[in-house]
Amino acid sequence: MLELRLVQGSLLKKLLEAIKDLVTDANFDCSATGFSLQAMDSSHVALVSLLLRSEAFEHYRCDRNISMGLNLSNMAKVLRCSGPDDIITLKADDGGDSLTFMFESPNQDKIADFEMKLMDIDSEHLGIPDTEYQAIVRMPSAEFARICKDLSGIGDTIAISVTKEGVKFSTRGDIGSANIVCRQNTSVDKPEDATIIEMEEPVTLTFALRYINSFTKATPLSNQVTLSLSSDLPVVVEYKIAEMGYIRFYLAPKIDE
Amino acid sequence: ACLQKKIMDYFNSE
Asked: Where are the beta strands (DSSP E) in A118-192?
C-alpha cells in the first residue's frame, strides 16, 4: 500500500512542469527515503534526478519499495486539474496497475480524484559518483533563466566559464556573439539574491543551450540555482526544494573534436 | 566541430 499526502501539492505540479518536456515516460520510485525519479531525455544527453524526501509529506506510507511507470505529459495534465493551494494525496495498491491522485481544496469543500494507468517502462538506472567539482556557482534562479533565454536568441550553444573574475555565459551565432559576466555578490539584502562562486580551478564547458533552457523550467521551485562544473564532466544544474528535496539536471558537455 | 557526448559516457549503469 502506498499513500503519500503532500500538503504543498503545488510542489509536485511544479516538478512535473519542469521535466515533462525533457522526459516522455519515467518510473517514479517510492521507498522509505522518499519519492524519487531518475530518467534520461530521449537523446541520452541529459539526465534528471529528483527527490521529495519522506519528511516533505504530512503522511508517508510506503509498505515496500515500488516503481511506478507514468507518462509525464499525461501526469502533468492530471496535476493541472489541482488548485494552487490543494493538498495532493497519491495512492496505489500493492500489485495494482494504477495510481490515484486525490486533490483536496484547503477548506475541504472540493475533493477530486483522478486515476492514471501505470505503464511498464524499461529504464536504465545510472550510478552517479560523488565528485568534487572544480567550480560551484550559486546564483538567483530567475537571473540564470533570464541569461539562458537571452542567449538563446543569439546562438545554440552556451559556454559557461568560471574564473576568479566571475562566471561568464557566452554564445555565438549567425548574427554575432554575446557574453554575460556575473560577479560574486554577497552584499545583498536577501540571501536568495546572492551570487556565490567557489572555485578550485578555472573551468570552461560548452553545452547545447536548448537543454539548459529546458532545465530553467524548474525556476519556480527555488529562488537559487547551483551550477557544479568540472572539466570533461556533465554540469549539474540543481534546484533545491527548501528542506524537502531537490531536482538535479545533468548535461553532457560538447567536446571539440 | 563539436561532438555531443552522451550521459552514459560518464555514468555507469547500476
From this structure: 126-127, 135-140, 157-163, 166-173, 176-182
What is the complex's ipTM, to 2 decimals?
A: 0.92
Whether residue B14 and residue A127 make contact (CB cut-off 8 A), yes or no, is: yes
Nearest CB to B7: which of A206, A208, A234?
A234
Lowest mean pLDDT among A59-63, A77-81, A158-162, B2-6: B2-6
Residue carrying C-alpha cell 526544494: A241
pLDDT tens figures, B1-14: 678 899 999 998 87
User: A128-159 burial, b for 16+ CB within 10 Å, e for fewer?
Assistant: beeeebbbbbbbbbbbbbebbeebbebbebbb
CA of B3 vs chain A CAs: smallest distance (Å): 5
**All residues at 6 or more sequence positions from A189 whose CB lies less than 8 Å from its CB, including other chains:** none
- Nearest CA distance, A46 vs chain B (angstrom): 6
What is the distance between the alpha carbons of residues A231 and A155, in angstroms, rounded to a whole number?
A: 22
d(C-alpha A9, C-alpha A66), whole Å: 21
